[in-house]
UniProtKB/TrEMBL annotation:
TM regions (residue ranges): 32-51, 346-366
Domain of life: Bacteria
Protein name in the entry: diguanylate cyclase
Stretches of the chain forming a coiled coil according to its record: 413-440
Entry EC no(s): 2.7.7.65
A Pfam family the protein falls into: GGDEF
Residue ranges constituting the GGDEF domain according to the UniProt record: 468-603
């Protein structure tokens, strides 16, 4: 006969044992909090990724702005050195010292020093202050600039005719070498700027091209000025250098034409471009070509024409500087706008994250308050009812019709349980009273023989575990029958009550005092050895002998008692009947020895 597999009861979990175990381990409250935490964690993770992306964009714009500002400063510093070189050349070409030129030269020197200081500060802020290559180049350039200035000042202090041509040429070459030395710094800083953000590559390249255009035009001017000052033609070497410089200018001009269209949508760049076309590409370049031809074909004009040529050409070179500054301004404004946009996005993301988090948290707390907490409260109330605790008060019901109905049902169940508990408590009280009456002596209020038998089982078991002996003091009132016969049973009852009172007062709080039967009493003692037990018995005997009862005729009545003391063995097999037998034997010996004394039973084997 085929046996069908046992089907699970309705509502019982089914599935693999490990899955069922996991389901039973998690409470409803735990599942609720786990799911809530997961939802909040996922939401915060998504918002955090969005915020992280915006923050990275913000950091990129910030770094790019720092690097581009640093690159702009190093180009301005280099161009300032070129401008100072042109003013030095103009001052040297003067037949008489010019206060105006001297003031302009000193102002340009202060400007260049300030640019060097600003460049060092920006290097420190960008983390490049410890770059040995950049720092060495800057220190060398600044020292060389100081030396060139000192040499120029010495030449300025000499009369025109006494100024050696070679020293003037060397001074100009020294200024050109300083600019060439700054190229390493320009290239390094420009490369780092591009590495920080490839989107600013065109800005770096375009502004470098404009700066080179301005520099090569200035060098052409410096090459043509000395022959013009001396009224001589260009040498073959000078002609080759001039042709090379103008050819480089043409190449850079073509390169710039391919780079500028990116910025031609900007009005500022278009205006600067138009000014540069007019003042530089038309005027300066044409003037340089014309001056070169003049210096090649015949002797140039006298010296004052050289000074005039420099002073007229130098300001026109600033049109290139304005074009370069316009490109920088557009790029920097774009980076600042991008940084501001990302900053606002970060703030918006943060606000939205906080708002979403608060909304989710509010929803979680509301769900817990209106659903989870009432269910857990109902669960705890039902468990408390099952354990017999009916003291819970559900006078205030939670919101929601379903939850109120649930708690009304629990209140009905609680009321029914309370009625059952009242009946159960009354039955327990009655049972306890009956048991107490059955184990208590009605006359003396001491525990009776039945109660002694019940308590001694627990007493012996406890002391067996603790490894201690149990002491028993058994005593009998001497000639008690004679008291009853001579004075009546009422007097005898008074004697028994007085003895019970005296014994309870003398004994310790944890000693068990009981009436064994008739005029016989017992004292069960824990934790005393034989001498201490005998001492306690003597103490009780003297207390009984010292008490008196006043009879109706005013005469005092005294009694005595005989004691038998025994100490159990420290052994699990030691029993209450054995201890009674030992104490009873000792009591018999005390009576035979003349009564009113304590006899100690020999130690148990």
């Amino acid at each position: 006969m085929e046996v069908l597999p046992e089907q699970p009861c309705n509502g019982s979990p089914s599935g693999p044992p490990d899955k069922i175990s996991m389901q039973t381990k998690l409470t409803l409250n735990q599942k609720f909090w786990i799911s809530s935490i997961l939802v909040i964690a996922v939401s915060c993770t998504l918002a955090g990724q969005w915020a992280r992306s915006n923050y990275q964009a913000y950091q990129l714009a910030q770094r790019s702005l720092k690097h581009l500002t640093l690159y702009q400063t190093v180009l301005l510093t280099t161009t300032g050195i070129s401008t100072e070189r042109g003013l030095m050349l103009a001052q040297m070409s003067q037949s008489q010292p010019s206060d105006h030129l001297q003031q302009a030269l000193h102002a340009q020197r202060r400007y260049n020093d300030q640019r060097f200081d600003r460049l060092n500060r920006l290097l420190s802020q960008s983390g490049l202050a410890n770059d040995p290559l950049i720092q060495d180049r800057l220190k060398q350039s600044r020292r060389a600039l100081g030396a060139a200035r000192a040499e120029a000042d010495r030449l300025f202090s000499q009369p025109r005719a006494a100024r050696p041509k070679q020293r003037i040429t060397d001074s100009l070459r020294q200024m050109i070498a300083i600019v060439d030395g700054m190229r390493t710094v320009i290239d390094d800083i420009g490369t780092r700027a591009i590495e920080s953000n490839t989107r600013i590559t065109r800005v770096v390249v375009t502004t470098r091209t404009i700066t080179q255009l301005r520099e090569y035009a200035g060098r052409s001017l410096a090459l043509l000025a000395p022959p013009m000052m001396e009224g001589k033609c260009l040498t073959g070497e000078q002609q080759g250098q001039s042709e090379q410089l103008l050819g480089r200018v043409n190449e850079l001009q073509d390169l710039l034409e391919s780079q500028l269209p990116t910025y031609m949508n900007e009005g500022l760049v278009r205006k600067a471009r138009a000014d540069a076309n007019r003042r530089y590409f038309s005027d300066v370049y044409a003037t340089l070509v014309e001056a070169r031809l003049q210096c090649m074909l015949n002797a140039p004009s006298p010296m004052y024409h050289a000074s005039e040529f420099i002073l007229q050409t130098q300001p026109k070179l600033q049109s290139l500087e304005r074009l370069r500054d316009a490109v920088f301004q557009i790029a920097i404004e774009g980076l600042r706008t991008s940084r501001e946009v990302t900053r606002r996005q970060i703030m918006l993301t943060t606000a939205m994250t906080i708002a979403i988090g608060l909304a989710l948290l509010g929803q979680v707390l509301l769900t817990r308050r209106t659903l989870i907490a009432p269910l857990l409260r109902a669960r705890n109330d039902i468990i408390a009812l099952a354990e017999g605790n009916t003291g819970c008060n559900t006078a205030t019901y939670p919101s929601g019709v379903e939850m109120r109905e649930l708690f009304r049902a629990i209140d009905i169940l609680r009321s029914s349980q309370q009625r059952r508990n009242i009946l159960e408590r009354e039955r327990e009280i009655l049972t306890t009273q009956l048991q107490q009456q059955a184990e208590t002596d009605g006359l003396t209020g001491l525990i009776n023989r039945r109660g002694l038998d019940s308590q001694c089982q627990h007493l012996f078991a406890r002391n067996a575990v603790l490894g201690r002996a149990v002491g028993l003091i058994m005593f009998d009132i001497d000639h008690f029958k004679q008291v009853n016969d001579e004075h009546g049973h009422l007097v005898g009852d008074r004697v028994l009550q007085a003895v019970a009172h005296i014994v309870r007062r003398v004994c310790r709080g944890n000693d068990i005092v009981g009436r064994f039967g008739g005029e016989e009493f017992v004292i069960l003692v824990e934790g005393l050895d034989a001498p201490a037990l005998r001492h306690l018995a003597e103490k009780v005997r003297r207390a009984i002998a010292g008490m008196s009862i006043t009879l109706e005729n005013g005469q005092p009545l005294t009694v005595s008692a005989s004691f038998g003391v025994a100490l159990s063995r420290i052994h699990p097999q030691s029993t209450w009947p054995q201890l009674i037998e030992m104490a009873d034997t000792a009591l018999y010996l005390a009576k035979n020895a003349g009564r009113d004394r304590v006899m100690m039973a020999p130690p148990a084997d």
